[in-house]
Specification:
GO biological process, one term: methylation
Number of helices: 25
Structural class: alpha+beta
Subcellular location: Cytoplasm
EC number: 2.1.1.320
Distance between the termini: 32 Å
GO molecular function, one term: protein-arginine omega-N symmetric methyltransferase activity
Largest sheet: 7 strands, antiparallel
Bound molecules: ligand 44T
Protein name: Protein arginine N-methyltransferase 9
Length: about 900
């Protein structure tokens, strides 16, 4: 009997661990996947007939469906249900719950078998039966998201929420992906009055000057097209590639009485043709398809295509008499790009490994770890730059050069646009003006709307724009000083502007900055302090870098591994790893003590395993090890740290082969025997292996759960995972963390408002846009840097919520918290962060300067005016893993603390 129970536990353990290990990660800040998945052909619907044979078939099928469901044969059950409900739609109400359950179970199986097309076919069949079932729609969205079809997933969540506005699962999903549908910068741009006004003026001038046929490329909400129409253009066309934005533009244009007067096309400008899409070439193209790196939205390609196919020929210098209505031109007319070298710790720790030791493990053997941002164009998985608002980087930045002119581009000169990508790589020599480590080149630009007017995206401007960041990827720590010259290469391969720091000139010699090819040479890890290794002065650092360069020709393979920026920052987070190390050590010591009292394996009432040879080293797992499971998302060394404690057999859920290889190398170099570390997902791939897992008789001593996403939100399904994990623990075993406590404070922040909705009652440039785009407002802001957020603190920090992972039944869903205003003002938001308690003594904060976590904030529906000393009641709700907060003034005075909490039923 015991054996049977355990087998069931182990079997379900295998599945549950998969559940524990896999989750939707809504937070990846990589390029959205714009591909669309293949669609199933529409099937003919059966027409139900009334006859006894059919009734017999229906009832037998229904019985079979129920029997199969009972036997957990979900595939067959699903087919039976389909048959039943197609033949007898009257049974829909009766069978809907079981049908859904069957669908979800079968879909999970198909998912784990990789039968993706079958999975979506099932959903589409289900939706033919239940077209307005928000639960099915939402669940299909979750599968779509996991498969990388993010736009489509977001569309499904939105649809589910429209069908049932208070459906918590859909709300949570929608909030997490809304920015894939309507990116947050739309709000910023529409709130940027100066930018709106300048564009409007430039367009008005051009139209009044005779450009009367206009095409708005990438119209977004339709604003620039409407400006052209309002200025009197005879014909206005607009195109938009995002379906959601296209639909929004149509709504906005109609609401502003311009329906039929602006032709909006749902397509990429590159696919447009004359006369198929627009009757004739236009005299003006307006566009703001520029990102922080200027070319990232494809403006070069779009304008080359527009000049060749959609625009009238440009005004020529030979024949200046051609009237503007007969010549083509573009707003913006061109741009000037600037760059500047900077030292910035925050950038460094997201792109380079800065520590030589993590939680007791030497890192040298990890090989070269790179972030996915690199100036090389060879690797498809890398992007040339990332974006940051320099003024908001925690810890700030130090300029190492003056801003330099990197590029000038004339959007009205098609030859220049076409020549850009075939241009020779240009080299600039920049006098170094500041002292510090070279971490990145920051780039911004001036967008010349016309001869008179321009917009700047510079770090010192009061704009909403971010700057493009080209991180330096060399493993060396390269201290620059005034008098040096930094040599930068500027190129424009595949229509991306690429900047790369290649060398430093000092005292008449040139030192290349590319990688040290000999992995065995010691490296000077920059260290988090900015001046990394106090024993090495700048000169010695340079010499040691040179020593590496001397061996550049050495053969031998390079161990080159890519980590996401957040994974890199996590590796650099020493307090995090040290805390885990201490907490794990304490647990193992306690369990050892308990075992020595009880005798081996007694605690679980299991057969004593045959004794094998005694452990040969301190880190050998030995015959009766402690089992530790790390189900962190992405790359994590916690399993290895556990294995290095000795007498531990650790299971890692690191999936990528390259990442597993890094862990193996680190294990070898740190004396952790191979058998002490296993990769969980390798094992479960092979069903046989699952059943023969060495730990089948065992329960876990520790399960490490990844509870907070980098973006600052509680990981989805955390509590469900904790409940499962709790069942899989041995006596005295522990979930890490055992508890997380949510903290927050009252702030007044206009910045957060500007990023979440179009503000104010005033129409935007006279147009009614806000109510439409504000439908996509999401009350929770993620990826905040609270330490640099422009805001006024209106209270101290206060405990908002506790999540007990060791006893999930003890949790509540609602809690009222009272907090006193420490200053007068308007509470616009409640930023929040977490204290993660690994055990009673050891905890970590997600709001800490070494943290790889960012913070999040709830933006209040309505700002709340407070006077100093007022008591504010915060009603905090945690539904699934999404937090909502509303605030009101508390009339009676009282002490800070919980007013009320409602337990989970
Ligand atoms: N964001 C800047 C980029 N499109 C600005 O679908 C600035 C980022 C930013 N449509 C913080 C602040 C800011 N044909 O809806 C999008 C896009 C569409 C096209 C048709 C094409 N060839 C294209 C190319 C793009 O154009 C719209 C605007 S694109 C970028 C705008 C405040 N973070």
């Amino acid at each position: 009997m015991l054996c049977c129970v355990l087998n069931t536990v182990v079997l379900s353990q295998c599945n549950e661990n998969l559940v524990l290990a896999h989750g939707c990660d809504f937070t990846q800040r990589r390029m959205p996947n714009t591909s669309t998945r293949p669609k199933r052909g529409r099937r003919n619907r059966r027409v139900p007939r009334e006859d006894p044979a059919r009734n017999e078939l229906v009832s037998r099928s229904l019985e079979s469906a129920q029997q199969c469901l009972f036997n957990q044969d979900y595939g067959t059950a699903f087919v039976h249900y389909l048959l039943v409900l197609n033949l007898a739609p009257v049974l829909k109400d009766f069978a809907s719950e079981s049908f859904r359950f069957t669908l979800f179970k079968w879909a999970d199986e198909l998912d784990s078998l990789g039968r993706i097309q079958d999975l979506f076919d099932c959903y589409e069949q289900a939706l033919e039966l239940f077209p307005t079932d928000e639960v099915i729609i939402n669940s299909m969205g979750e599968h779509l998201f996991r498969m990388g079809f993010r736009d489509e997933a977001a569309g499904h969540f939105h649809k589910a929420l429209k069908l049932k506005p208070d459906y918590p699962e859909a709300k949570e999903n929608f909030y997490r992906v809304a920015n894939w549908l309507v990116e947050r910068w739309h709000f910023l741009m529409l709130n940027d009055r100066r930018r709106n006004h300048k564009y409007q003026q430039a367009i008005q001038k051009a139209v009044e000057g005779g450009c009367n046929t206009v095409l708005d490329i990438g119209t977004g909400t339709g604003i620039l097209g409407m400006c052209a129409k309002k200025a009197g253009a005879a014909e206005v066309y607009a195109c938009e590639l995002s379906k959601t934005m296209y639909e929004l533009a149509c709504e906005v244009v109609t609401a502003n009485g311009m329906n039929g007067r602006i032709k909006i096309l749902h397509m990429k400008s590159l696919e447009m043709e004359v006369p198929k899409d627009i009757p004739k070439r236009v005299s003006l193209v307006v566009t703001e398809t520029v990102d922080a790196g200027l070319f990232g939205e494809g403006i070069i390609e779009s304008l080359i295509h527009a000049w060749n196919h959609l625009l009238l020929p440009p005004q020529s210098t030979q024949d200046p008499s051609r009237p503007p209505s007969q010549a083509g031109r573009v707003i913006p007319a061109g741009a000037t790009v600037f760059g500047m070298a900077v030292q910035c710790l925050e950038i460094r720790r997201h792109h380079r490994l800065c520590v030589s030791e993590i939680g007791g493990l030497a890192t040298a053997a990890a090989g070269e770890l790179h972030s996915p941002v690199s100036c090389s164009s060879e690797d498809d998985s890398t992007e040339p730059y990332t974006t940051e608002r320099l003024s908001r980087l925690p810890g700030g930045y130090t300029p190492l050069t003056e801003p330099f002119n990197a590029l000038d581009i004339d959007f009205n000169n098609v030859q220049e646009l076409e020549g850009l990508c075939s241009r020779e790589v240009s080299r600039v020599r920049l006098p170094v003006t500041g002292e510090g480590l070279l971490d990145a080149l920051a780039v911004w630009f001036q967008l010349h709307l016309d001869q008179q007017s321009s917009l700047s995206t510079g770090p010192k401007e009061d704009t909403c724009w971010e700057q493009a960041i080209y991180p330096v990827q060399t493993p060396h720590n390269f201290p620059l000083r005034p008098g040096d010259e930094l040599i930068v290469e500027i190129s424009c391969r595949d229509a991306y502007l690429r900047l790369c720091s290649v060398a430093v000139a000092r005292d008449g010699r040139e030192f290349r900055l590319d990688d040290c090819l000999d992995p065995d040479k010691p490296r000077n890890n920059p260290g988090p302090s900015g001046n990394p290794n106090p024993s090495l002065n700048a000169e010695a650092e340079l010499c040691s870098a040179l020593a590496c360069l001397g061996t550049e020709q050495s053969s031998g393979p390079r161990d080159y591994t890519m980590l996401e920026c957040a994974e890199m920052a996590l590796l650099n987070n020493q307090p995090y790893h040290d805390s885990f190390r201490r907490a794990l050590a304490k647990l193992i010591t306690n369990l050892k003590d308990a075992r020595s009292v009880q005798g081996p394996s007694q605690g679980q009432g299991l057969e004593v395993m045959p004794l094998t040879d005694p452990p040969s080293g301190p880190m050998d797992p030995g015959p009766d090890p402690f089992y530790v499971l790390d189900v962190s998302e992405g790359f994590s060394v916690l399993s290895l740290m556990a294995a290095s404690q000795g007498q531990v057999k650790a299971y890692s859920s690191v999936e990528k082969t390259q990442h597993q290889a890094v862990l193996r190398r680190l294990a070898r170099a740190n004396g952790v025997p191979e058998e002490a570390l296993e990769f969980w997902l390798n094992q479960v791939e092979d069903e046989q292996a699952v059943l023969q897992r060495p730990s089948r008789e065992k329960l876990w001593s520790a399960i490490i759960l990844d509870c907070v996403e980098t973006c600052g939100l509680v990981r989805q399904k955390l509590m469900e995972k904790a409940t499962l994990a709790r069942c899989l623990l041995e006596d005295g075993g522990q979930i890490f963390p055992e508890r997380i406590v949510l903290y927050g404070m009252l702030v007044e922040s206009d910045t957060l408002l500007l990023e979440s909705a179009v503000q104010g009652q005033e129409p935007t440039l006279g147009f009614n846009i806000a109510p439409f785009i504000n439908q996509f407002t999401v009350p929770v802001h993620v990826f905040l840097d609270l330490s640099t957020l422009q805001c006024r603190h209106l209270s101290d920090s206060v405990e908002l919520f506790i999540l007990d992972l060791m006893n999930t039944n003890a949790n509540y869903t609602n809690r009222d918290v009272k907090v006193q205003a420490s200053a007068s003002g308007r509470v616009t938001a409640v930023p929040f962060w977490y204290q993660i308690h690994l055990n009673e003594e050891i905890s970590l904060s997600t709001f800490n300067q070494d943290s790889h976590w960012k913070q999040a904030a709830v933006v209040l529906h309505q700002p709340l005016a407070v006077r100093e000393g007022d008591w504010v009641r915060l009603a905090v709700t945690l539904q699934k893993s999404s937090i909502s907060i509303s605030a009101s003034i508390e009339e009676e005075a009282g002490e800070t603390g919980t007013v009320d909490s409602v337990r989970v039923r």
